[in-house]
From TrEMBL:
It comes from the Bacteria. PROSITE patterns: CHEMOTAXIS_TRANSDUC_2, HAMP. GO terms for cellular component: plasma membrane. Residues 224-276 form the HAMP domain. Residues 555-582 form a coiled coil. It is found in: Cell membrane. This is Methyl-accepting chemotaxis sensory transducer with Cache sensor. Keywords: Cell membrane, Coiled coil, Membrane, Transducer, Transmembrane, Transmembrane helix. Belongs to the methyl-accepting chemotaxis (MCP) protein family. It holds the Pfam family sCache_2. It is a multi-pass membrane protein.
Length: 582
């Protein structure tokens, strides 16, 4: 089991499986593509065969119909002879369609339906009506296909139930023979078109399997020597990883695996020399690290004593510097507070200036609004006057319409009297009666039109009244708005005076703040001078202390480095003990 698992993990096995997989995939794609292409071509060829057979049967029916027209045959005799010719000889009520010239392979035969879906041509179901709704729908589709205008619509694909209850797809080509009202065609199971492809599928599978076997054998023969060399490289690498350092002598070649062998031989030679040199150097390094550690310990003790004395001096100087720094911090806080107050005053002054500008802009806008409101009021008065004139004109139109209606009614009465007189005149008054009737119709149309115009005028009067009310409401609103605008203008004037007073107060306050800021700056300069002297003293002490501390740290680091060097040398020695140079 372990050998089998190891063989599966080898490079040769993986490469061989990859080659076999590629061949299988290519073979499957070629086989499937060829199968479906051939299947499509065979289906198209089969459909063309169906069309040819049906067209031939139409030609036979046409000849028989001509004999019916010439009186050589009756319609019944011609139809019986047509069944014999397209479905073969009849035996015990069944037609042997395989002996006919109009069959397709073993199961393709001609059939025909009349407009009532009854079979008129069929090898065994002659005169049979649809047995269920599904069968009726299939026959309806076939009859519709026979009457289609385009060639593709003459083909029908439907499911046909078999004796075992299963379904198989059928393809039918239908034509309609108008003289007899027959929809004649041929229905064939679709899989009959490409049943020969089964042999082709077996052939493709066999060829693919043979290619897999042959490719695997060729791959093994071509890669056997290289895989053997690769295994030798792996074995040598495993031995070196276990501590056995030796110079390898692997076979070298010009390809990638041969170049790997050459590089591995050089690497093993250089690795052997490297381990030998490191072992020799490690011994010398251990002695040097021991001497350096002893010297570092002595220097560190002397430097610590000097550092303690400098720390005491630095402590007093630092306390003085801290006191001055605290005073300086308080003065700095005061300066910041004064600066903040100065900035706030400037911001308030700027905001007051902007507010004054906005107030002036608002006053200008109010003036414009007052003028616009006056113009709007004047325009509304003109609109009201114009609408009054429009209302007067509409009333005059109403009077004219009433006059037209009266004329239409009188014309209608005159036309009626003329018709009566024409009727009394008999034949001589017939033409006059027609003219009178036309006049009456025109009068009726005029009356109807005037009624419509009257309705439109009434609607105009109604909308005019609404507009008058809307204009009056707008004028009232405009007058009220004018009063509000005047009041708003007074408020803006009061706001402008208040803002001017605020600006004067802020200017005086800013002058006082400037004087306070100048005094604070003088005090800050004096404190910074004292603080600078204290800081210089502290800095000098700290510099000396820092130098001593740095010297102590350097010496400590040297001692630690010497100890680490000794420890690393011991670890290196232990690591080198795991390698055996041969």
């Amino acid at each position: 089991m372990n050998k089998f698992k190891k063989a599966l993990q080898s490079v040769s096995t993986k490469l061989m499986l990859m080659v076999i997989s590629i061949i299988l995939i290519i073979g499957a794609l070629i086989g499937a593509g060829g199968y479906y292409i051939a299947r499509g071509q065979l289906i198209e060829a089969g459909q063309r065969d169906l069309k040819s057979i049906v067209d031939g049967s139409i030609a036979v029916l046409t000849i028989l119909d001509q004999q019916v027209r010439t009186g050589e045959l009756s319609l019944t005799e011609a139809q019986d002879q047509a069944r014999f010719m397209v479905n073969g000889p009849e035996t015990d009520g069944t037609f042997d369609f395989l002996q006919s010239n109009f069959s397709y392979k073993q199961e393709g035969y001609l059939l025909a339906y009349d407009s009532d879906y009854v079979l008129q041509v069929h090898p065994s179901r002659l005169g049979q009506a649809p047995r269920d709704e599904q069968n009726r729908q299939n026959r309806a589709m076939m009859i519709d296909a026979g009457k289609a205008e385009t060639l593709t619509d003459h083909y029908v694909i439907y499911s046909d139930q078999q004796e075992d209850g299963s379904y198989r797809d059928k393809v039918a080509y239908m034509q309609h023979f108008d003289p007899w009202d027959w929809s004649i065609g041929m229905a064939v199971f679709q899989d009959e078109f490409y049943e020969e492809l089964h042999t082709l599928s077996i052939f493709i599978a066999t060829v693919t399997f043979a290619l897999v076997i042959l490719s695997g054998l060729v791959f093994y023969l071509l890669t056997r020597r290289k895989i053997k060399l690769l295994k030798a490289v792996t074995s040598a690498a495993n031995q070196i990883s276990q501590g056995h350092i030796y110079e390898t002598n692997l076979a070298e070649d010009a390809d990638e695996i041969g170049q790997l062998s050459t590089a591995f031989n050089k690497m093993s030679q250089q690795l052997k020399a490297l381990v030998t040199n490191v072992q020799h150097t490690s011994t010398q390094l251990l002695d040097s690290a021991t001497d350096l550690s002893a010297i570092s310990e002595e220097s560190a003790a002397s430097s610590e004593e000097v550092g303690q004395a400098m720390n005491e001096i630095a402590g007093g100087t630092q306390d003085q510097a801290n006191d001055l720094e605290d005073v300086n911090t308080r003065v700095e806080s005061l300066t910041q507070a004064l600066d903040a107050m100065f900035n706030y005053h400037q911001q308030m002054n700027a905001m007051a200036q902007k507010t004054a500008t906005a107030s002036q802009d608002g006053s200008n806008i109010i003036n414009k609004l007052q003028r616009s409101n006056a113009q709007s009021l004047s325009a509304n008065e003109e609109i009201s006057h114009d609408i009054g004139g429009l209302s007067h004109k509409v009333e005059e139109i109403t009077k004219v319409i009433e006059t037209i209606e009266n004329i239409a009614e009188e014309t209608n009465l005159l036309a009626l009297n003329a018709s009566i007189e024409a009727a009394r005149a008999g034949e001589h008054g017939r033409g006059f009666s027609v003219v009178a009737e036309e006049i009456r119709k025109l009068a009726e149309q005029s009356k109807s039109a005037t009624h419509h115009v009257h309705d439109v005028v009434a609607a105009i009067i109604n909308e005019t009244s609404k507009t008058v009310k809307t204009v009056e409401s707008t004028m009232h609103t405009t007058k009220a708005l004018d009063a509000d605008v005047i009041e708003t203008k007074d408020r803006f004037d009061q706001l402008s005076h208040s803002i001017e007073a605020i600006v004067e107060t802020l200017t005086a306050s800013q002058q006082e703040m400037n004087q306070i800021k100048e005094h604070n700056q003088e005090m800050r300069v004096a404190i910074e001078g004292a603080s600078s002297v204290a800081e210089e003293t502290a800095a000098s002490v700290e510099e000396i202390t820092s130098t001593v501390d740095e010297q102590v740290r350097v010496i400590d680091n040297v001692a630690k480095s010497a100890e680490q060097l000794t420890q690393l040398n011991q670890e290196l020695t232990q690591l080198l003990q795991a390698y055996h140079v041969e």
